[in-house]
Structures are given as structure tokens and as C-alpha cells.
């Protein structure tokens, strides 16, 4: 492969920068079970945080609800859905503000990249903008991104969710960069597909997964298009160098 000039690093938020998925899906499960009762949806069993993660990791709440309406053949008005989306944001943000921690090792990596000043850094997430900003502010990472924080649920004219590539295309347009000068870091299948479909080289990250799940998720991310998968943020500098040298 030819050497690649990278100018921009686009980072997913949940379980890539911050350990938020368990907290967020716990709140989502409670709300989805409430909706199911009100809509008389015959769930085989109530959702839990872990069962939602298994099915919907990388998607936002709106995306989950659209999928569940199709699966269980029930409907919600736009106003109902928007109201629940707002409620979910409030529930999850409260949990994040109380307990959120950064992913292991990400802080020093971002600090070094910021000091070097060679790359633009941005957050590109499916989650609502309020939630993303609350998350990175809680763990002190917001200083590395400025206004370059983009949400598929909030930033776009029409809300969507990964694996739709729209949020990556939007972020690149706003930042004035092209796919070939970017890399993305993603922890989920849907996020990896989103970046790949936008023409970006995606680095997979499986650090937050349980030890027994890491190997399986490495394969999932590679099948979704990740050019390499790392288990720890300490690997990132070497991965970036290999991409720039045209080795991967």
C-alpha cells in the first residue's frame, strides 16, 4: 500500500472514549420495557442492559426504537418518539454524570496527539449531542475537541444512527477534510460499518469488552471492515504509524 497522509482522527464516543455503554443501556432497558407495557408489546422477556447491548451496541435510542417497532409491529407517533428520546437522554445523562469513567489509557494518547498538533481531533457519535458532550466533559476529554463533536441523533438535518454513514460524511464536510486523510476508531459493528461506508479506514477497539468476548468482537469488527483491531489504547501510536507508512 502507498503511504497515507493522515490529517484527521475521528473518534466514536461510547466505549471508545468513555465507559458508557453499560450505564446507558441500563437506562435504555428500563424505558423500553415501559414502552412495551404501554403498547402491549409481547416481549419474550423484559430487556436488560446486557441484552440490549448484545443486540444494539453502537446504535442510539431512536435507532433502537425504530428497529423494535418493525420487529414487534407496533407504532409510535413522531411526538411520542421524540418525547421518549428526550426522556432517555435525561435518564442516561444522569447516570453518566454520576458514574462515568474514561476508557483505560485514552487520556494520555489524546494529550500527546494534542501536544503534537499534527492532527485534527473530532468525536463522531450516534448518541445525542447533549449526552456526548456531558460524557467527554465528565471525564475531562472535551478540551481536545473544541466544537468538533458530531451526533447522528442531533447534528444532522434528519436524525439517524450508525451504521448509516451520514454522520461521518457530515463531520468530514464540516471539518473540510476528505475520507482518504482520515481514520476512525470504533468499538462496534454498526460504527465500523458507518465509517467504512463513508470511505474511511476504521481502527477497531475492543478494550472494554469482557475478556471472553474480545476475540469474537475482533472478528466482528474485521468482518465489518476494520483494517486493524487494538485491545488497548497503548497500541494506537503504532497503528497510526503503520497506516501512514502504508503497511495497513
UniProtKB/TrEMBL annotation:
Recorded superkingdom: Eukaryota
Pfam families documented for this protein: Hydrolase (PF00702)
InterPro entries associated with the record: CbbY-like, HAD-like_sf, HAD-SF_hydro_IA, HAD_sf, PGP-like_dom2
Molecular function, one GO term: phosphatase activity
Protein name stated in the entry: HAD-like domain-containing protein
Lineage: Eukaryota, Fungi, Dikarya, Ascomycota, Pezizomycotina
